[in-house]
UniProtKB/TrEMBL annotation:
<dbReference type="InterPro" id="IPR012678">
    <property type="entry name" value="Ribosomal_uL23/eL15/eS24_sf"/>
</dbReference>
<dbReference type="Pfam" id="PF00276">
    <property type="entry name" value="Ribosomal_L23"/>
</dbReference>
<keyword id="KW-0694">RNA-binding</keyword>
<dbReference type="InterPro" id="IPR012677">
    <property type="entry name" value="Nucleotide-bd_a/b_plait_sf"/>
</dbReference>
<protein>
    <recommendedName>
        <fullName>Large ribosomal subunit protein uL23</fullName>
    </recommendedName>
</protein>
<keyword id="KW-0687">Ribonucleoprotein</keyword>
<keyword id="KW-0689">Ribosomal protein</keyword>
<keyword id="KW-0699">rRNA-binding</keyword>
<dbReference type="InterPro" id="IPR013025">
    <property type="entry name" value="Ribosomal_uL23-like"/>
</dbReference>
<comment type="similarity">
    <text>Belongs to the universal ribosomal protein uL23 family.</text>
</comment>
<comment type="function">
    <text>One of the early assembly proteins it binds 23S rRNA. One of the proteins that surrounds the polypeptide exit tunnel on the outside of the ribosome. Forms the main docking site for trigger factor binding to the ribosome.</text>
</comment>
<dbReference type="GO" id="GO:0005840">
    <property type="term" value="C:ribosome"/>
</dbReference>
<comment type="subunit">
    <text>Part of the 50S ribosomal subunit. Contacts protein L29, and trigger factor when it is bound to the ribosome.</text>
</comment>
Length: 95
């Protein structure tokens, strides 16, 4: 798997934005990727040193649209801690 196949997209929410102050960045990753692959992909794509990778599987939630019941999709989230003094540009002109 290539780095672009492993890292799908950054998760930008209020909680993940507050994690950025602690050098923690949140990404949606491929469900079959392990922590070592995620670490190598982040280091290759963004040119930073990864200290720690925490992963979790996000379970599907039951949703209903009118009369049709279904589930949201299942996906995998990774919280990546990078070395002190480094940063990842999620937005184009992040301070």
């Amino acid at each position: 798997m290539t780095a672009h196949e492993i890292i799908i997209r950054p998760i930008v929410s209020e909680r993940s934005f507050s994690f950025m102050e602690e050098n923690k960045y949140t990404f949606e990753v491929a469900r079959n990727a392990n922590k070592y692959q995620i670490k190598d992909a982040i280091e290759e794509l963004f040119g930073v040193h990864v200290v720690r990778v925490n992963t979790l599987n996000v379970k599907p939630k039951k949703k209903r649209v009118r009369y049709v019941a279904g589930y949201t999709r299942q996906w995998k989230k990774a919280v990546v801690t990078i070395a002190e003094g480094e940063s990842i540009e999620i937005y184009g002109n992040q301070a």
